[in-house]
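> example.struct
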C-alpha cells in the first residue's frame, strides 16, 4: 500500500554534516547489554531496525577507553582493534539496509567504577560518585594534560569508529557523563579555565566536539545528545538557566552537526526513558522545541517521546519542535514501525506500552528483552525475525486454553505459521490477568499488549477465538478433537498471605472474608470496608503501589507494608522508583519497609520487623546455639487488608491432563504443553516470550524445552584480542 500523503514528511531525507539519512526515523542510542562483547546479537538486533526502516541506528553508550568502564553493566566499547571488528559487524548489517550507523562516545568520569579495567577514571574535581555512593567510586581530578589526554581518547575512539564503519559519532552529553560533569556547577569546583563561568565549564565539552570535527568531521557527522534539564533543581542543569545558554554557546562555535535532546540525569534517567505510568507521549516537547528555536533550520534536532503514532510524529515535525523522530523503545517494540507507516499498515504496529521492562533488563545487568516484542534480542541467537514466521511443515489443529498474554501470543504465532488454532477462554474478553493491570491507575497504555494481539488474531482466518465459554475441564480438552493442546491457564493472587517471606500462609488471613481482598477481587468490585487499609506487598512491582494508589483515590488511609528494602523494589530497574515514591507521598500513603505480617484479626494487623532477632549467636539452651529470637510486634489498625503477597499458578488443568496421559492416544492427542503463568507466574514479558517460543519451536523434538541458542563467549584455545603484551595507543601529552 502507498504511503498516506499526510505522512510523506516522515520519509523525506535530511542532511547533517557530511551525511544524509533517507528518512526521519532515528534509533536513539540505547542500552542493550549486548555491547561489543556480543557482536552477533548486537548486529542482529540493530540490523533488524535498519531493515525495518530506521534510517539511523545507533549503539548504546560506548566507552572510549579502559579508564571508563561500567562493568558489570555492558556498554559498547571502542578500546582496541577487537572492538573495531565486533562493532564493524553491526555497521555492515546497518549499511546492508541503506541506513547510517551511529556510535555514542562515552566517558563517565566520576561515575566509572572500573570494576573490570581497574584503572583510575579522570574527572573534573576529584569527587565521590553520587550515582555509586555505596561503591567507593572516586575520580582523579584532571590537570590540563589529563584533559588533553581525554580529548585525545575521544579522537582515537572516533578514528576507530570510522574504521569500524560508523557514519556518526555522537558525544554523550547526557546521563551526567564527563562533559556534563564539567558543565554542572555541583561537580565543577575548578578555579582554572575549565571552571567558574559557564563559558569555562562548557570549554571541555566544546573542545571535544571541535577536536572530533577536525579529526573526522569531513567524513563523519559529529553530533551530541544533550540533557537541557536534569529535572533536579538549582545546582544542576536547568533548562531556562544554563541548559539553553549552553546550547547557544556550542551552536555559536559551529561544532555540532545535529542535536539529540533529552532531559533527566544519570541518577534519574527514568525522566528520559519516561514510563507510560508517569509520562505521556512527547513529554519532552517544550525542552526540545526551545533547542530547535536556537539552532535554526540548518542544524537538525532529534526528539524522542515514545512516539508510536504517525500523527503525533507529524505534529512534532510540523510544529517546528524537531526535524527527526528519535526512538529507543518504540523501535524495540516494533523494529518495522517506519515500514508499517510507509506501507500504511498502521494496525500492524506493535506499539510500545512504556513499561520499561527493556530498561529493567539492563538495570539488572542482563540482556535486553521486551514485553511487546518477544523477538528483540533473539534475532541472532535464536534466528527470530519479528515479521517472518516459518510455515508449519505439517500443520495440525491446536487447542490453546487461556487467552492471557501467553495464550494470545502462542495462538497468534501458531496462526501466522499456518496451524489451525482454537483459542478458548472462559472470560468474556481477551487478555487474562492483564485486563486487570490495564485498569490499574496510570496503566492504560498497557492495553496495547492486548489490542495489538486482538487485531492480529482478527486477521488470521485459521485462528478461531472462543470467549465466554464454560471453563474447560480435562474431559472437555480430551474430547475437543485437537491434535495438540497448549495450556495457558495463568495464575491467581494467593488468598492466604503466602509469599516469599517465610513461604507460609499468614495466620488469620483468608480472602473469603469481607475484610481481606486480593487484587483480582478488588478489581472485580468486591466492597472495600472501613477506612484503614493496608496493602501487604511481597511482589515488589506494579500491583502493590497500584493497589495503594487505588485505595487512596477511594479515600482510604493507606499503609503499604513490604518485606523489601524499598517500595516497589523492582521499579528500581524500570526507573520508576523515585516517581513511585513521590506519588505515594503525594497521596499520603504511609510506607513500612522490611516488615511482614505475623497475623491478622478483625481491625488490626500484627507486623514484625524482619531483623528483630539478635545479631550475635548465643547458647539458647544446653547445646542449642542460634540467634536470640525477637518477639516485638507492631500493631497496625486495619479495616481492610489487600494481599499482594505472591501469585499461584493455575496448574490443575495441566496436572489432570498429565495424570490422564494414557487416554491421549485414544483421543488422538499428540501432545499437551503448558506456557506462561500456569507454568510459573512471572512478569508478563516472560509469559509472552514463553508462548512465542513454544509456537516458534512447535516441531522441535521436545517443544516444552527450549532449543539451545547461540552463546557468545570466548571458547578456550582460540585467540584473544588484544593479546597480552600488545601496545596501547598513546593519549598522554608529552
Ligand atoms: P498468562 O499470563 O500466562 O497468559 P493469564 O492469567 O493472564 O495467564 O491468563 C490466563 C487465562 O486463562 C485467563 O483469561 C483465564 O480466564 C483463562 N482460563 C484459566 N483456566 C481456564 C479454563 N479451564 N478454561 C478456559 N479458560 C481458562
Ligand atoms: Fe516498550 Fe515495554 Fe518493550 Fe520497553 S519492554 S520497548 S517499554 S513495550
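> example.seq
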Amino acid at each position: 500500500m502507498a504511503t498516506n500523503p499526510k505522512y510523506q514528511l516522515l520519509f523525506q531525507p535530511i542532511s547533517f554534516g557530511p551525511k544524509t539519512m533517507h528518512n526521519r526515523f532515528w534509533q536513539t542510542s540505547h542500552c542493550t547489554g549486548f555491547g561489543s562483547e556480543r557482536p552477533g546479537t548486537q548486529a542482529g538486533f540493530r540490523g533488524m531496525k535498519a531493515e525495518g526502516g530506521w534510517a539511523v541506528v545507533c549503539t548504546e553508550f560506548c566507552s572510549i577507553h579502559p579508564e571508563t568502564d561500567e562493568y558489570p553493566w555492558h556498554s559498547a566499547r571502542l578500546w582496541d582493534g577487537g572492538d573495531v571488528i565486533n562493532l564493524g559487524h553491526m555497521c555492515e548489517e546497518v549499511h546492508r539496509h541503506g541506513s547510517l550507523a551511529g556510535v555514542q562516545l562515552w566517558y563517565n568520569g566520576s561515575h566509572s567504577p572500573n570494576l573490570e579495567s581497574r584503572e583510575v577514571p579522570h574527572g573534573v574535581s576529584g569527587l565521590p560518585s553520587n550515582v555509586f555512593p555505596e561503591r567507593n567510586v572516586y575520580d582523579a581530578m584532571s590537570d590540563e594534560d589529563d584533559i588533553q589526554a581525554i580529548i585525545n581518547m575521544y579522537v582515537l575512539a572516533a578514528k576507530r569508529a570510522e574504521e569500524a564503519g560508523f557514519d556518526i559519532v555522537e558525544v554523550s552529553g547526557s546521563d551526567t557523563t564527563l562533559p556534563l560533569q564539567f558543565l554542572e556547577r555541583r561537580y565543577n569546583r575548578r578555579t582554572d579555565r575549565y571552571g567558574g563561568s559557564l563559558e569555562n565549564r562548557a570549554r571541555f565539552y566544546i573542545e571535544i566536539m571541535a577536536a572530533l570535527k577536525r579529526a573526522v568531521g569531513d567524513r563523519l557527522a559529529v553530533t551530541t545528545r544533550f540533557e537541557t534539564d536534569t529535572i533536579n533543581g538549582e545546582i544542576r542543569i536547568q533548562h531556562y538557566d544554563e541548559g539553553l545558554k549552553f546550547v547557544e554557546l556550542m551552536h555559536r562555535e559551529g561544532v555540532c552537526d545535529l542535536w539529540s535532546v533529552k532531559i533527566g540525569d544519570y541518577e534519574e534517567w527514568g525522566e528520559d526513558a519516561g514510563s507510560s505510568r508517569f509520562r505521556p507521549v512527547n513529554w519532552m516537547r517544550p525542552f526540545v522545541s526551545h533547542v530547535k528555536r536556537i539552532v535554526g533550520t540548518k542544524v537538525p534536532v532529534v526528539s524522542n517521546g515514545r512516539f508510536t503514532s504517525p500523527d503525533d510524529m507529524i505534529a512534532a515535525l510540523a510544529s517546528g519542535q524537531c526535524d527527526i523522530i528519535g526512538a529507543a523503545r518504540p523501535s524495540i517494540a516494533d523494529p518495522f514501525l517506519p515500514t508499517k507507516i510507509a506501507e500504511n499498515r498502521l494496525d500492524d504496529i506493535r506499539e510500545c506500552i512504556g513499561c520499561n521492562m527493556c530498561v529493567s533488563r539492563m538495570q539488572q545487568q542482563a540482556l535486553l528483552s521486551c514485553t511487546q516484542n518477544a523477538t528483540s534480542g533473539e534475532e541472532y541467537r535464536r534466528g527470530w525475525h519479528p515479521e517472518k514466521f516459518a510455515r508449519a511443515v505439517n500443520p495440525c489443529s491446536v487447542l490453546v486454553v487461556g487467552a492471557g498474554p501467553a495464550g494470545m501470543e502462542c495462538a497468534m504465532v501458531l496462526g501466522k505459521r499456518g496451524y489451525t488454532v482454537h483459542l478458548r477462554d472462559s472470560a468474556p474478553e481477551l487478555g487474562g490477568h492483564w485486563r486487570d493491570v490495564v485498569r490499574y491507575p496510570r496503566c492504560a497504555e498497557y492495553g496495547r499488549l492486548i489490542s495489538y494481539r486482538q487485531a492480529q488474531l482478527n486477521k488470521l482466518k485459521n485462528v478461531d477465538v472462543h470467549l465466554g465459554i464454560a471453563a474447560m475441564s480435562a474431559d472437555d480438552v480430551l474430547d475437543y478433537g485437537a491434535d495438540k493442546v497448549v495450556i495457558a491457564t495463568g495464575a491467581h493472587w494467593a488468598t492466604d498471605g503466602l509469599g516469599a517471606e517465610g513461604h507460609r500462609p499468614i495466620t488469620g488471613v483468608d480472602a473469603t472474608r469481607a475484610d481481606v481482598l486480593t487484587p483480582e477481587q478488588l478489581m472485580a468490585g468486591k466492597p472495600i470496608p472501613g477506612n484503614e487499609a493496608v496493602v501487604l506487598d511481597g511482589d515488589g512491582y506494579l500491583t502493590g503501589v497500584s493497589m495503594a494508589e487505588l485505595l487512596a483515590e477511594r479515600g482510604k488511609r493507606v499503609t503499604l507494608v513490604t518485606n523489601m528494602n524499598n517500595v516497589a523494589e523492582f521499579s528500581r530497574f524500570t526507573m520508576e522508583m523515585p516517581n513511585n515514591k513521590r506519588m505515594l507521598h503525594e497521596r499520603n500513603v504511609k510506607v513500612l519497609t522490611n516488615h511482614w505480617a505475623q497475623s491478622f484479626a478483625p481491625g488490626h494487623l500484627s507486623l514484625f520487623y524482619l531483623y528483630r532477632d539478635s545479631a550475635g549467636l548465643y547458647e539458647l539452651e544446653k547445646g542449642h546455639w542460634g540467634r536470640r529470637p525477637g518477639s516485638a510486634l507492631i500493631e497496625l489498625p486495619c479495616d481492610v487488608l489487600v494481599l499482594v503477597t505472591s501469585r499461584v499458578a493455575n496448574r490443575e488443568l495441566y496436572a489432570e491432563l498429565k495424570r490422564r496421559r494414557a487416554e491421549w492416544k485414544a483421543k488422538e492427542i499428540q501432545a499437551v504443553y503448558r506456557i506462561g503463568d500456569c507454568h510459573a507466574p512471572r512478569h508478563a514479558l516472560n509469559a509472552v516470550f514463553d508462548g512465542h517460543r513454544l509456537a516458534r519451536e512447535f516441531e522441535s523434538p521436545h517443544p516444552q524445552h527450549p532449543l539451545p541458542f547461540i552463546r557468545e563467549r570466548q571458547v578456550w584455545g582460540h585467540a584473544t584480542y588484544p593479546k597480552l603484551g600488545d601496545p596501547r595507543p598513546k593519549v598522554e601529552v608529552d
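> remarks
The mean pLDDT is 96.
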